[in-house]
UniProtKB/TrEMBL annotation:
InterPro entries documented for this protein: F-box_dom
Species whose genome carries this gene: Caenorhabditis latens
Name assigned to this protein: F-box domain-containing protein
Domain F-box: from-to ranges: 2-28
Amino acid sequence: MTIPIRRLPYPVLREIFKQMDPESLINFIRTNNSSIKLLPAMSASVSVNYHNKDPFILVTTASGIQSELPFGYYRKVMKVFKWIELDCLKIVVSDKFKRKSCLRLLSLLKHCKFTSCNCLMIQSVEEGVVLRKEAIMDITKQLKTINEMFIDVSMEELPENLDPALAVTVTNGDLLADTEIMLLEAEEILVESSRIGDTGANLIIKNWIAHGESLRYLELKLADEWKLFDDDNLGMEHLLFDLDFQVRGEGRFETKHLGSVLNFEDGFDIQRDDGKKATITSNQQVVRLLIISNP
């Protein structure tokens, strides 16, 4: 004999619903409009994979049960779950990616009232794709807090509102000038490629001395033609130009968000007027600025 689900005791129903996958929950409420009244208050996290072909969302319940759903199902997800967190927003762009292509995604962010995101990823489907900042500004304006950001696409320039992230990784910064890197106000910044030389790195360090607030760690790979520690130590005089520094010995630094540990043999200590201290280290083409202590 089959017992109708509506006749089961509510504590039993609640446990059943909590163990169901998101897609099954959506199918359940589609059977009858009043079925949604049976659902307990549940939470879920959502990861959005947005691209021109078949974008989708990955929904994970508090019990760790997942369903991959078409992008258009987000309204149904809103009906099933009372609390929804945007875990990851991945945007894949191509040379055909236009600002209007973001309208559906903007509709999702606005409808779901997402104001924060644990991770924002911007990737390209192929090399040579250049993304205009206007194509992404509207999306980042919707998100007041971005905990971690990965930029794996060439951008003309960075939108000014990319500053709330705790950690920013720029995998392709070949089109960014030193002034664009200065726009980032994250706690930890990793720039894996750039067109910047030792003079540009010097200006970025001076910008932190004059204006830096939240920065705790900066790792910047200089352009291929720049070598800091070659046989003649060429480049160090430009990197340290017009800076008051003291040579220091070995040390250790651990990032909070990027998950890296740096052991260095020597460096150069600098100090701001407000008492904040930092150490500059370098190895071949990589320059690092470590904010060691606060006053």
